[in-house]
# Entry
Amino acid sequence: MKSLKFQETLSCPNGCEPFEADRWSFINAAQNPELKDAVLGGELNLFCCPQCNTFFHGDTDLIYLDEQAGLLVFVFSDKNRANKDELLKKMEHDYAQLKDTLFKQMNLDFGPICVFGLEELKEVVRKEQERTDESEAIAAAAAALGLKVARLHPRWAREHDSPLYVAAGADNTASGYALAARKVLESGLQSPLLAHFAKVMEGGGAQAPEVL
Ligand SMILES: [Zn+2]
# Structure
């Protein structure tokens, strides 16, 4: 599934003559990592008006998919923030359709999240990148201790503010995971995500995490 861009008529904020340009409307980050970089750098759908040379963002709807991070983001125009309830309904409807068409070949087992504007998308992608980087350090620290590494479901990890990788417990119970997480933390690794995960696993009635 390739990323998609379409030619559109754009108008700069200074009210110059409209012009034609290609605007990305679907981003598959796994296939086009350079577009993920463009999101992080603020260059995605950034246009320059040919008349007044003003740079501006094409602020219209787009979909961002990063299968590895378990991330599907519907980005709505910043102008439509007031219509959030209506747009959430539209998102669920569109998502149900996309699952039967565009995403049919993929095994998406995570639901979409909704943001407004490219700044908010950048923030979500940046946070996921940080989670990935910190998770890799956790996996390395666990392996250095001779512990097995478990890969958590990205959706579960995001919902529980947890890393993508943790040390696997001796058994598949929450307390087993908590013990293994403490071992890694005691080795000197600084990881707020793992510390939070340990607390979640130590909580009363905690369930073991969803693993892949
Ligand atoms: Zn202009």
The longest strand covers residues 19-28.
